[in-house]
Amino acid sequence: NAGVTQTPKFQVLKTGQSMTLQCAQDMNHNSMYWYRQDPGMGLRLIYYSASEGTTDKGEVPNGYNVSRLNKREFSLRLESAAPSQTSVYFCASTSLHEQYFGPGTRLTVT
Amino acid sequence: RKEVEQDPGPFNVPEGATVAFNCTYSNSASQSFFWYRQDCRKEPKLLMSVYSSGNEDGRFTAQLNRASQYISLLIRDSKLSDSATYLCVVTSGYNNNDMRFGAGTRLTVKP
User: Fold this and answer.
1) Per-residue pLDDT tens for A24-47?
2) CA nearest B103: which of A41, A69, A104?
3) Which residue among B34, B43, B97 places its CB closest to the CB of A48?
4) B58-84 average pLDDT score
5) Do A45 and B98 touch (CB under 8 A)?
């Protein structure tokens, strides 16, 4: 039982490049989330998916797209990366009220 | 104004000390409240839920004051291993899907 896994762990992009962050959970949870964490800002919700086939915007969705591929997987795509998207990205899934987080992806956009 | 506000600290305390953190939230419709712990460069993990009646888990006590819209965390007999950042979390919305995190309070417990 791996919990929530994320790939890659680290990534450096140039401005304008695209990439997809992958997330998977093996706990059979319905709800999954993507957050970014910046110094002094706390975690901010980008997108969430309450169940397979549905996605909704969170607090800071601009510049991102998501896909809930199936119950296990929820990916986050940056179509044209910008330096303002330099951050640590966490994926999470929820059981009742507890959120289980993945280990994070550290993304730097130069 | 941030929806969830915490004193960023750092709080530097000796082993065995008692330390308390507060957190205020602005959305009066908030439904559920939690404290998460985050170690350096790691993911957040649930420490405890916070109930109106207050709740205790070993050395940790959490309180909620809905009228004043704040929650607190008290740590007694601090251990070195308590050193971490403590995140206040408030939920609202349908099925509590809207979770708002405070920026965290950093605690360092020194020998």
Assistant:
1) 999 999 999 999 999 878 899 999
2) A41
3) B97
4) 96
5) yes
